[in-house]
Amino acid sequence: MSERIPAQNLTGDFRSRAAEALADGQLRSNFRVAMDSLMQKRADAFADEQEREGLRELGNHIKARALSRLPDLLEQLEAKLTDNGVQVHWAETTEEANRIVHRIIEQRKGSQVVKGKSMVSEEMEMNDYLAARNIECLESDMGEYIVQLDGEKPSHIIMPAIHKNRFQVARLFHDKLGVDETDDVNELIQIGRRALRQKFLEADVGVSGVNFAIAETGTLLLVENEGNGRMSTTAPPVHIAVTGIEKVVENLRDVVPLLSLLTRSALGQPITTYVNMISGPRQPGELDGPEEVHLVLLDNGRSSAFADAQLRQTLNCIRCGACMNHCPVYTRVGGHTYGEVYPGPIGKIVTPHMVGLHKVPDHPSASSLCGACGEVCPVKIPIPELLQRLRQENVVAPGQSRVKDGGAKFSRSERAVWWGWALLNRSPRLYRWFLWAATRLRKLTPRQLGPWTENHAPPMPAARSLHDLVRDHNKQGGRT
Amino acid sequence: MSARDRILNKLRAGLNGTRPRPDDFDEALVTRPWQYSAQERVTRLRSLMEAVHTEVHPVTMADWPVKVQELLATRNVGNLLYAPETAHGRQLARHWQAVTAGPTLLAYDRPAEDWKDQLFWQVEASLTGTAGGIAATGSLVLWPDRHEPRLMSLLPPLHIALLRASEIRDNLYELMQEQGWASEMPTNLLLVSGPSKTADIEQVLAYGAHGPKELVVLILEDA
C-alpha cells in the first residue's frame, strides 16, 4: 500500500512534514507510548464521571463569566497588581512584548535571563529576540532545556521534549555539555539540575508564564512540578511574567476548580508539586524574592478571536494539553508537524488568530472530527465545531472572512460545482435527467480524481439508481 | 492611543450589546466530593504524599526536634537551615544547645544576596513550618514571610516541614475561605505537594529536578 502514497505529489508544509513524521518509526513510538500513558492517567484521575462533568461545566462557566467581563477584569487586575507593587505592561504584538521585556532587562543592565516554562514567550520567540541583542535567555524547565540545547522547538505544550527518548537526550548532553553518556534518567536530570542551578544563581532576570491571573487579589498563579518556576520567580532580582490577556479570572475561589481541572487533565495529578501564588515583589524586611515584578499582558490576535462570539470560546483554554493527548492525528504526526507554537487541536483553533489562517490553511482539515478533543476539554471548548467554522472561513471569498487572512482556499470552480449541485437538487426534472445520464454514461467517470484516487479506487455510479431499484421492487409486489 | 487603550477598546467593541454572565459558582462541586473525618484527613494526606515520594512521620510537640536530629543523622547531613525568629525555630535551637554534637544550624537571618553561593550550593537541609495542610490533594500550605523566607523550602536537597494535624483541612476551598486569603494575600503563597520532580524524559519520574530531592513531613499530633 505504501508505494501508493506518492510523497512528491503532496503539497504544503503540513502535508510534507506529516509524511516525514509518519515514516519515522522512532518518533511514532515515542508519541504513541506517551499519549497512551497520559490518556490513562487522566482517566484514572477523573474516576467519577458525575464529579468530572460537574467540574467541567463549572470550569466552562467561570471562563465564560471572565470573558464576558474581560476588559473590566483586566483593568481590575492592573489596578490590584499596581497597588501590590507589580508593574503592568500591555502589548498588542509579540514585537511590542519583546521590546518591553528587553527594555526592563536593559534598565537593570542585565545579560543573563533564566526562564521558567512559558508558552507565551514561545509565541514571542523571546529567546531569539534576546539572543540577537546579546542577552542569554536560558530555558530551565527540563524538557524545554533539552529542546533548546538541540536547537529545536517544543513538540507538546506540557511535555516539550516528549518526541525524544532517553538515548537521544544522553547523546545530546554528551555532545553539548561534555558529560559522559548515560541513559539513566535520574542521572540525566541531575546533570540538568547542576547546570541550571548555577544559572539561577547568576541570572539578572527571571521570566515566567502565568496559569491564572486573579483580578480580585492581583495574584499570578503558576503551577509546576520541577521547582524551576519558583526558582525563576524567586532567585533573580527581577521577575517578568508574560501572559495572554485571556488568562484573567475574576475571583480567587475561581481557581479552585480550574486548578483541579488543569492538573488532572494535563497529567492525571490531583495537584502539581508546586502551586505558586505571587502577589507582589519583595517587601521591606523580607530576605529574598525579586525586588521588581513585572507583568506583560499580550494580545497577539486574541482580541480578534474575542470579537466573534463563537471563536471567542478558544480563549477559554487553560493550556492543559489534554486535546492533543487524545488526538489521533497529533499522536501520529507529532507536534513539530504543525510548524507552529501551539500544536494539536488547540493549536488549530488558536493559531489562525495569531498568524493568519492563510499561513495554516491545512490545519482545520487535519482532523477526522472524531470529537475526542471536545469531549476531554476541561473547559468544554467545542473544538470540532470551531474546526468546522475555520474550514468555512478557509473557503469564503477573500475579504469576507471574519478570521485574520481567511479565504486562502477560496476557489471559483469549487463554488461553481456547489452552485450546480444545489440547482440539480432543487429541480426534479434536472435531477431525473442527471440520474438517467449518470447511470448510462457511468463508464466515462474520470479515473483520476485528485488526491482521492492516490489512495482509493475511483468511484463510479451504479448501473441502476436507487429510484429504479425501488420501482422494480414495488412492481414485484413489494416483498422483501 | 496606547496599546492598553487599543486592546481594551477592541475588547469592549466585541462585547457591545452583551451582558456579563451571572456568577453561578457552585461551591458544592469543589467541596462535597472532598470531605473527611478528622482521622481520614491525616491518613489521606499521608497516603497521597507518600505516593509522591514524601516521607511522613507522626511526632509530638515535645519530641519533634529529636526526630529532626535523627533524620539528619541517618542521612549524614552536615547542616540545617532554620528560621531563628519563629516559635519552632527557637524550640529547635534550644534542643540543639542541649545536645552538643550534631549538624551545624544555619540561621536564615540576612538577605539572600549576602550568602547566595552558600545558600545555592552548600545548604543541605532546611526546616520550615506550614500554614496548614489539604487532605483532598495531599498538600502543604506555605506562607513565607520575613522570618521564614521563600528560598528555605526550595534550595536545600532535603526539606523538613512541620504540620499540625489540627491545621489540616478537607480541601483547598475550605482552607482559603477559613483563612480569608482573598482579603490578605502575602507576596508569595505556596502549595507544596511533594519533592521537586520531573517526567520530562520519556515520562520517567525523577525526583530533585530543581527543588528538594526529599520532602519529610512531621505531623504534630495535636488534634
UniProtKB/TrEMBL annotation, chain A:
<dbReference type="GO" id="GO:0051539">
    <property type="term" value="F:4 iron, 4 sulfur cluster binding"/>
</dbReference>
<keyword id="KW-0677">Repeat</keyword>
<keyword id="KW-0249">Electron transport</keyword>
<dbReference type="Pfam" id="PF11870">
    <property type="entry name" value="LutB_C"/>
</dbReference>
<dbReference type="InterPro" id="IPR024569">
    <property type="entry name" value="LutB_C"/>
</dbReference>
<keyword id="KW-0813">Transport</keyword>
<dbReference type="InterPro" id="IPR009051">
    <property type="entry name" value="Helical_ferredxn"/>
</dbReference>
<dbReference type="InterPro" id="IPR003741">
    <property type="entry name" value="LUD_dom"/>
</dbReference>
<dbReference type="GO" id="GO:0006089">
    <property type="term" value="P:lactate metabolic process"/>
</dbReference>
<dbReference type="InterPro" id="IPR017896">
    <property type="entry name" value="4Fe4S_Fe-S-bd"/>
</dbReference>
<dbReference type="Pfam" id="PF02589">
    <property type="entry name" value="LUD_dom"/>
</dbReference>
<keyword id="KW-0479">Metal-binding</keyword>
<dbReference type="GO" id="GO:0046872">
    <property type="term" value="F:metal ion binding"/>
</dbReference>
<dbReference type="InterPro" id="IPR024185">
    <property type="entry name" value="FTHF_cligase-like_sf"/>
</dbReference>
<dbReference type="InterPro" id="IPR004452">
    <property type="entry name" value="LutB/LldF"/>
</dbReference>
<keyword id="KW-0408">Iron</keyword>
<protein>
    <submittedName>
        <fullName>Iron-sulfur cluster-binding protein</fullName>
    </submittedName>
</protein>
<dbReference type="InterPro" id="IPR037171">
    <property type="entry name" value="NagB/RpiA_transferase-like"/>
</dbReference>
<dbReference type="InterPro" id="IPR017900">
    <property type="entry name" value="4Fe4S_Fe_S_CS"/>
</dbReference>
<feature type="domain" description="4Fe-4S ferredoxin-type">
    <location>
        <begin position="307"/>
        <end position="337"/>
    </location>
</feature>
<dbReference type="Pfam" id="PF13183">
    <property type="entry name" value="Fer4_8"/>
</dbReference>
<keyword id="KW-0411">Iron-sulfur</keyword>
From TrEMBL, chain B:
<dbReference type="Pfam" id="PF02589">
    <property type="entry name" value="LUD_dom"/>
</dbReference>
<protein>
    <submittedName>
        <fullName>Lactate utilization protein</fullName>
    </submittedName>
</protein>
<dbReference type="InterPro" id="IPR024185">
    <property type="entry name" value="FTHF_cligase-like_sf"/>
</dbReference>
<dbReference type="InterPro" id="IPR003741">
    <property type="entry name" value="LUD_dom"/>
</dbReference>
<dbReference type="InterPro" id="IPR037171">
    <property type="entry name" value="NagB/RpiA_transferase-like"/>
</dbReference>
<feature type="domain" description="LUD">
    <location>
        <begin position="44"/>
        <end position="220"/>
    </location>
</feature>
